[in-house]
Amino acid sequence: MIETRVSYYESLRAAGQGWHEDQHDIRPWLAYLLGVILAASRELEQRVGSLSGGGAKTAAIEQFVRTT
Description:
Layout: H1 2-16, H2 27-52, H3 57-67
């Protein structure tokens, strides 16, 4: 998880450059965030797939939402 922390601060630093001049660019941080979401989605797919026999991530999420 330390790599994620380092990557987070690097992306935040890159996105904040030029902040005071209104020249900053959110894309480095946004790319980091989307990478984290993608990794979490893949991990969820692996975990749910192993619980339900594979390929049932959407159905498992829909069932969870219905029962909550």
